Amino acid sequence: MSSVSIVDVNKHYGGLTILPSLSLSIPKGSFTVIVGPSGCGKSTLLRIVAGLESTSGGQIRIGDRDVTQVDAAERGIAMVFQSYALYPHMTVAQNIGFPLRMSRVPKPEADRKVLDAACVLKLEHLLDRKPKALSGGQRQRVAIGRAIVREPEVFLFDEPLSNLDAAMRTQMRVDLAELHRKLGATMIYVTHDQVEAMTMADQIVVMNAGRIEQVGSPMELYNTPRTEFVAGFLGAPKMNFLTRAFAKPYGTETLGIRPEHITIEPTPSVWTARVRHVERLGASTVYYLDMSDGQSLIATTSGEDVHGIGSEIGLRPRKDRLHRFKDGISQE
Amino acid sequence: MTSTTIATANAEAGRVRLRINRTHLAAIVLLVPAVVLFGVFVVLPILQALRFSFYDWNGYGSPSKFVGIENYIKVVSQRHFGTALRNTTFIALVSLLVQLPLALWLALSLYRNTWFTAFLRTVFFLPYMLAEIAAGLMWNFMYDGNYGLAHSLADAIGVEPKFVLADPAWVMPAIAVVLVWKYFGFHMMIYIAALQGIPNDMVEAARLDGAKPWQIVRHIKIPLIRSALAVTAFFAITGSLQLFDLIVPLTNGGPNNASLTIVGFLYQFGVTRMRIGFGSAVSIVLFAICVVVSIIYQRAARIVEK
């Protein structure tokens, strides 16, 4: 395993700038999740690290090696694609063993490595099947197996769970986190799903419009977002942003407060709001509220709801959890 | 069983009957026109040809002189039929071993979309758009040792021009060149369509797995377009079996019947000599060969699909 350094990397297609100039350090053995909305350049960045895209400028280093001009196969990386990219004419064993076959690893050794990878991923009983006879989760595990046998310095994942259903995605999140612990490898994982980022990462990199907004641990980014974008992107339901009369008393332009940091009270309190919609999730309840000046707010409480649609309630924000933003930048 | 249960069961049986009847009706409505057309324009002529092949008949009046399998014996014992069979086999082999690999190589080089590859694809596909007769005439002029390109080339390098279409030893290779030139673009287009259907992720995954470009072709691209390869092989063989109109303006089967194909043999010794019974026997032999090729193709395609 190795660290990855991205130094002043930029990417232009003709006159179009995809990545203006970007630097990032990924520590050895970390699980780094690059998260951002569609089109923010996160997949392009991953493909540049993989060697599948060239850079317009800058440097990529894996460990001590400058790999900017090195061919993809020689970089010591393995990548898992969103579409799995399994070879449909090969069996599971042949798919997993393909990189070993290409690097002319002797057959007995290759077979042993394929079996080892299959055992780690619980695929032993599927080795003779073709990809079309597998479920989505099994296919994804085969794709991961193909990456594992190469024993790469860095694993790259390009939205690997996007094609799976919700239950399978949750299971695979756990499996991937466990795999990371077991292998101790450096992993770079690209997703647009903030839940995947929060649950799996040691380090989250939030990207927006080709730029890095903030880098840090999940809770660091959650509790102390440096920009309004990061504050709004991480967390579900997302952070509330109040302006005008609600922000002014706190000496700011935009006041941010997470839904779970608002206490609901039956009588008028710091703020007053009317219940527009209620979502009952069993363990918690999500209230969609209209404030007096027409602004909207979301608040969550644990347990079942007691306030019906149309009822007026009081809201008390936790003072120690308020976020103040000016021109999109945190003032904390 | 209660009366309610019986009534429910009867209603369910009625619904099943109705469903079956509707399925039958749909099958009849959709199948009958196809079966009628196929019967009138395919099955009936084959049966007629089979019947005529047992008669010594010149096409006038109705066939009356039954000769049994005599026409078939004449066909297989004719020296020129052997030549035709040999030439057809040669054409099929050239199609399979030269034309298809050339088309595949070009397709692999040109399947990505750029203006330049699009231009080259169009250029390579143009010969296929030409009528066979026009292409044959064009190449006839080119091969002409007195006025054609062959003359100019020989003149340029200072050797005696060769009349390849008049030389029994060279005529079939010369025709094979025209054939490859005429049809490789068609096969190339089929391969390009198939290659463009391969997900880019798969090729990139192979690159990351350490496969070199030729290994990606061998281990990924070719296996993934195997259906297209099987179809083009089938087209190449059946096209070779039916080759006729390209040869007519080039050599008309000459010199001294050296460039006869099976269909050319049928035309020369059956149709032009008014030996309809004999020609029918040749056509039945050709049909039998086509059926065998189809069966082999179907079997091979099934194996390929597995």
Short overview:
The complex is a heterodimer of chains A (332) and B (306). Chain A is of the alpha+beta class.
Question: Please, could you describe this protein's structure?
Answer:
With 332 residues, chain A is an alpha+beta fold. Chain A has 2 domains: 4-232, P-loop containing nucleotide triphosphate hydrolases (Rossmann fold, 3-Layer(aba) Sandwich), CATH 3.40.50; 237-330, OB fold (Dihydrolipoamide Acetyltransferase, E2P) (Beta Barrel), CATH 2.40.50. In chain A, 25% of the residues lie in helices and 33% in strands. Chain A contains 8 helices and 19 strands. Chain A has helices at 42-50, 92-102, 107-120, 136-148, 166-183, 194-200, 218-223, 228-233, and strands at residues 4-13, 16-26, 31-35, 57-62, 65-66, 77-80, 154-158, 186-191, 203-208, 211-216, 240-242, 254-257, 262-265, 271-280, 284-291, 296-302, 312-317, 323-326, 329-330. Chain A has a 6-stranded mixed beta sheet with strand order 6-7-8-3-9-10, with helices on both faces. The two termini of chain A are 37 Å apart. The relative contact order of chain A is 0.12. Chain B is mainly alpha-helical and 306 residues long. Chain B folds into 2 domains: 1-52; 72-305, MetI-like (MetI-like fold, Orthogonal Bundle). In chain B, 76% of the residues lie in helices and 0% in strands. Chain B contains 13 helices and no strands. Chain B has helices spanning 3-52, 70-77, 79-110, 115-129, 132-143, 149-157, 171-196, 200-208, 213-224, 226-241, 247-250, 262-271, 276-305. In chain B, α3 (79-110) packs antiparallel against α12 (262-271). The longest helix of chain B has 50 residues, at 3-52. The mean pLDDT of chain B is 91.
